[in-house]
Amino acid sequence: MTADFSWIQPHPHGIYIAPADCWIDPSRAVETALVTHGHADHARGGHGTTIATPETLAIMKLRYATDDGATLALYGETITLPGQVRATYTPAGHVLGSAQILLEHAGERVVITGDYKRRSDPTCAEFAVTPCDIFITEATFGLPLFIHPPIAGEIAKITDALAAHPERSVLVGAYALGKAQRVIAELRAAGHTDPIYLHGAMERMCALYQDHGVDLGDLRLVADTEKDAMRGQIIICPPSALNDRWARRMPDPITAMASGWMRVRQRARQRNVELPLIVSDHADWTELTQTIEDVNPQETWITHGREDALLRWCELHQRKGRALAMIGREDEDE
């Protein structure tokens, strides 16, 4: 009997699992939502029931002030949904609590990745290769030019800049969920033990990470610190604050930004970034293509980014592919 996978239905606002009458990462409120991670283009409040990892549910409670209908899904635990659908959450390696969702029904296996990366990250569980029949992958950096460098070299740019200019500070723009904590943790791994200063918008998410066992070391708020005390120090802020009035409080800052998009020089120039840091929480081109080979699905469904290029790669490698037209997927200053 030929599998048709008609039970899983991509829509512009989410992926519908028909036998279970539930949705994966819907962009509108639904009765039952299975959520891969806490970024706003995948998670939102207002669902009747939200099934996610404990960390993702905590992030959603913090960001969207809702925990109604929260249902825990531990990594490796299989949940039986209506319509004889089984759901198993496995690590995606994207941010704290991020998960792929393996769905099994009628002898067929489908993996929805959400967002993912294959690189080591001290702030979240490592991506788990999960064989399946249909693999639904993101393609945020789905072009061959996006090959992310080792993170150690990017972190060294920050510490080298401080060593060369001890009278200044380094102001790093980093997305508040995932990127900021990873940069801090990598700085600690590189031996940076000084206090790291935070924009107020970073405080609660960093505290949540620490509450879930991620050691970020000595963190202090810019608002509680004299300007001169931040000379020779690292400050983490949202990307939007880099050129804001708030940044004028910093002592002669060297502006940096941590993002996979810093591979594109024009993006760095547009942001007036002096120190581009190519640090991504998404898979690069090599990781995307290697993951498809590792998973070895019958079909690859592609969404969230450069769908055409990855679809073409599938065709050239005699792999069946399909591009999904989904809305509400943004890079959030990735």
Automatic annotation (TrEMBL):
Which UniProt keywords are given for this protein, alphabetically ordered?
Answer: Exonuclease, Hydrolase, Ligase, Nuclease
The answer to whether keyword Cell cycle applies is no
Can the keyword 4Fe-4S be found in this entry's annotation?
no
Q: Which InterPro entries match?
A: MBL, RibonucZ/Hydroxyglut_hydro, Xnuc_lig_assoc
Annotated membrane-spanning segments are: none
According to its UniProt record, the EC number is 3.1.-.-
- One GO molecular function term? RNA endonuclease activity
Domain of life (superkingdom): Bacteria
Q: Which Gene3D superfamilies does the protein's record reference?
A: Ribonuclease Z/Hydroxyacylglutathione hydrolase-like (3.60.15.10)
Q: What SUPFAM superfamilies does this protein map onto?
A: Metallo-hydrolase/oxidoreductase
* NCBIfam families, sorted: Xnuc_lig_assoc
Cite the PANTHER family for this sequence. BLL1145 PROTEIN, CLEAVAGE AND POLYADENYLATION SPECIFICITY FACTOR FAMILY MEMBER
The identity of this protein, by name, is Ligase-associated DNA damage response exonuclease
Q: Which organism is it from?
A: Pontixanthobacter rizhaonensis
